[in-house]
Design goal:
Layout: H1 7-19, H2 22-29, E1 34-35, E2 41-42, H3 59-68, E3 69-71, E4 84-95, E5 102-114, H4 122-134, E6 146-153, E7 159-171
Parallel strand pairs: 3-4
Antiparallel strand pairs: 1-2, 4-5, 5-7, 6-7
Helix pairs in contact: 2-4
């Protein structure tokens, strides 16, 4: 059982929100609108004619989730694949001044996109969707998930990276 207001509860809830969002999963999977190098046409990732991806009964869905949304950090698999990927992991944890019960926990959401996905502003589209889903929302326990900052970071060759940081209040105990 997950303890209420625990860090595990917050991260589990964030993960569930992200992996069950159809729009976000489409942005992580489908190629940008237009023709690829083999002259195959791809519709916009959010085109309603494309099949829905979020189906918890489907093995393909869970394969997509495992490949594109990761709890923790692991970038070694990016080099051999052309994809969009999100990493969710803990940042710094600090005590809240004048509170012996509460600590402030950073939540890092790191977005990596291959340059082939960048022609439709994919990193911005993914960032916007994540913020719509979790910023200023009550994810678990007490308080809202606050947006702290967002910055481009160094990425592997042929990739772009953008790190979003949020803060949340968690129990010290």
């Amino acid at each position: 059982m997950i303890k209420q207001s625990s860090t595990v509860e917050f991260f589990s809830n964030i993960y569930q929100i992200l992996i069950t969002d159809e729009e976000l999963m489409r942005l992580l999977k489908y190629e940008p609108k237009g023709y690829d190098t083999q002259e195959n046409y791809h519709p916009d990732p959010l085109d309603p004619k494309l099949p829905n991806l979020v189906n918890i009964e489907s093995d393909d869905y869970w394969k997509l989730v495992d490949e594109r949304v990761v709890l923790g950090e692991k970038t070694s698999d990016l080099i051999e694949n052309k994809l969009c990927k999100i990493y969710i992991y803990e940042g710094r944890r600090r005590p809240v001044i004048e509170s012996y019960l509460v600590a402030q926990q950073e939540v890092n959401i790191d977005i990596f996109i291959h340059e082939s996905f960048d022609r439709d502003l994919r990193i911005s589209r993914i960032s916007d969707r994540i913020n719509e889903l979790i910023a200023l929302e009550r994810i678990a326990g007490f308080g809202k998930l606050e947006y702290k900052s967002g910055n481009p970071r160094e990425a592997p060759t042929h990739y772009r990276r953008f790190l979003h940081q949020y803060t949340m209040n968690v129990s010290k105990k």
